[in-house]
Hints:
The complex is a heterodimer of chains A (253) and B (495). Chain A has helices spanning 9-14, 16-28, 44-49, 52-66, 79-98, 104-109, 119-126, 146-149, 157-163, 186-189, 191-207, 218-230, 240-245; strands at residues 2-5, 32-34, 73-76, 116-118, 139-142, 169-171, 212-215, 236-239. By secondary structure, chain A is of the alpha/beta class. In chain A, the strands form 2 sheets. In chain A, strands 2-1-3-4 form a 4-stranded parallel sheet, with helices on both faces. With 495 residues, chain B is α/β, with parallel strands linked by helices. At the A-B interface, helix 1, helix 2, helix 3, helix 4 and helix 5 of A face helix 1, helix 15, helix 18, helix 19 and helix 20 of B.
Amino acid sequence: MRVALFLTCVNDTLYPDTGRAVVKLLTRLGVEVDFPMAQTCCGQAHYNTGYRHQAEPLARHFSDVFGSDAYDAIVTPSGSCGAMVRELYPRMGERARAEGRGGGLARKLAPVVPKTYELSEFLVDVLGVTDVGAYYPHKVTYHPTCHGLRPLALGERPTRLLRAVRGLELVELPGAEECCGFGGTFALKNPDVSAAMGMDKVRHAESTGAEVLCAADNSCLMHIGGTMARLRSGVRPVHLAEILASTEEETLS
Amino acid sequence: MSGGTFVGMPAFPEAAHAAVGDRTLRANLRHATHTIRDKRAKAVAELADWAELREAGKRIKDHTLRHLDRYLVQLEESVVRAGGTVHWAVDADEANRIVADLVKATGEREVVKVKSMATQEIGLNEALEAEGIHAYETDLAELIVQLGEDRPSHILVPAIHRNRGEIRDIFREKMGSWGRPAPEGLTDVPAELAEAARLHLREKFLRAKVGVSGANFMVAETGTLVVVESEGNGRMCLTLPETLISVVGIEKVVPAWRDLEVFLQTLPRSSTAERMNPYTSMWTGTTDQDGPSAFHLVLLDNGRTDTLADEVGRQALRCIRCSACLNVCPVYERAGGHAYGSVYPGPIGAILSPQLRGTRSEIDASLPYASSLCGACYEVCPVAIDIPEVLVHLRERVVQGGEVTRRGVKVTLKPAKGHAAERAAMRAAGLAFARPGVLRLGQRLASRTRRLHPRTLPGPGRAWSATRDLPKVPAEPFRDWWQRTHGTATEGDGE
């Protein structure tokens, strides 16, 4: 099994630890991981802010980089970027067609759509594992980010993976399904509401007594974590991949 | 935030700024929305065929909208055959004119009103007042809003922003100047507040000769109108007056009587979390010696045909005004309904107002951004309106302009002002992302200068750093680590 790691531009630039964790985890599970160096950005921020036409070249570039038959799957540690490829690339193709620009874009993007998996989907559905041999001796609460929860419908996959981690105590997050308030450019365009939502998410995380708030999307964790840091909250944000990569030999603190 | 920030969105964000800081409002909204939200989830979970009902509702509405011309003509024929009169209003002014003239023709100076979104949309009460006609709202929450000289902040529960103490004060202070005053020693016990409203309104019901309503549904094949409500005030207004005038948006038509089977299941459960609403009133034209002897239906367009012309945006016309999307929306819960600057607040308002009114005003241009795109609204919508999809579509209209239909004519919109810096940033990002080398250069620059990065950002960046710490830039980006540890020859290397 050979997979292409679609790390996302945010993780590549700001959260390389998450990337290293995915590589470590998948390698441990016997998967050959490649990081195509030409990858950049899937275009989600452009698309969601209203710049669909500017997102199209990025989607084409994504298809050039990841479309190779040499990869059995494209794996990403991000619910929202995964949803961009799986849900919105087909829609972009359809819109281009509706605008009288033919089926070229749809055909171009078609090969990468079904091959793209969010990390927990790849582990549970493709590899068929829930116990990845991880060890993480901490009390953890899980926030299902919106794109993972709704468009991708990850469901129980992330929490099944977490429950199988040795030493980990999983506690339920009140109001878990409510958005954290990040929303990409929403965080800047509507900072008051975004911050209020973030504060409530942190308050809920604190109420669980957990040390760690886990999620499968660092964009949301950047917002929640930034709020936690500002509030001097004792809870810290950790990406799901980093918990799953942690073992008794090499334990993530 | 000023209007000139990097991402430049003045209207909704400014209104929301005040709302977020209002602790009473926040508490009222949190309590009310969470209560309704939880009850709705339980009521919907009771039906094993909810997904099928939702799909059926969507398809009935889509089919009707596709053949709207045909069904509206059929509806008109049916209503006329049953003894009613049909009027067509292209916009708010025309609808208000028609209603004012109809009321004047009766010689009356006051009307009682059933709760109606369409008449609020066109500002009917104000238009009638200007003609010397008093319109009395009879829905409990609308009464609270009217007496308090306030604006509605929710589709279903327009006084959701008020708690019972505030309502007691409004009743004590204002009821007397509108009619029967509040009873002596009125407290904030809900039963007492309801009794005060009942006594106050009863006087109006018994006196009024003209009733004004909207409708939840209009059945094309029979000419039947349907009003779904909880309090019984609607039933009073629909049956006691001699003249009934109903102002209804053209998208409220359904083809056949049996189509109601679907919506009379999905609407109450979605809106009030009831299995069946207490009062469902249906009337077909006029009937001798029973109910109003004159019935007028005013069919309102007011931007709906233009909305129908938009392939992505037209799904907003499926809306049955249940308000489930408001109750689950985390943005609505914190910003409140008034911030949306429209009688249609919340997620549905954010896609309806900029289509019905256009995107020219500051508030309408800001509404498509009043969402984190979390998708909770789409999940609960009983007619499966993909609100996030329409929001993104309207954002595109704001930043990019393009072809829209206004009063039946195709016009090309220019990009909205205030997005120049954002547009430039998006273009720059697009260029960098097209060249992995440029992206890498930027990442390395950020990593090498990381000790110099400020903890808070100046200018537009304050929108982030006022409440959140910035992420720390790592010593090296992932791609540098990968290259160091996994060699250079990598497939798809675009450098």
